[in-house]
Design a protein that fits this description.
81 residues, mainly alpha, 4 helices, 0% strand
Length: 81
């Protein structure tokens, strides 16, 4: 499973999305379950899946799936698969 696939599955699970609802272009405004609890769940999931710990500032500033990929890529996690 690629890192993109792992991230997709994580976000489907955390934000209770269907395959049809998911897109790597989604923003926080597009996902009704991306609230404060969703941020914490997403951050914990990222740590468990990728071993990366978001700072509280990073976690609350994330506004899109692209932001998650950018932060993880900057930490050396590959998403070019």
């Amino acid at each position: 499973m690629t890192n993109r696939e792992k991230l997709k599955q994580l976000l489907l699970d955390v934000f209770l999305l269907s395959e049809e609802e998911f897109s790597f272009e989604l923003t926080r405004e597009d996902i009704s379950t991306w609230d404060s609890l969703g941020v914490v769940s997403m951050a914990v999931g990222v740590q468990e899946t990728f071993g990366y710990h978001f700072t509280p500032e990073q976690a609350t500033a994330i506004a899109s799936v692209a932001d998650i990929i950018r932060i993880l890529s900057e930490s050396g996690i590959e998403f070019d698969e």
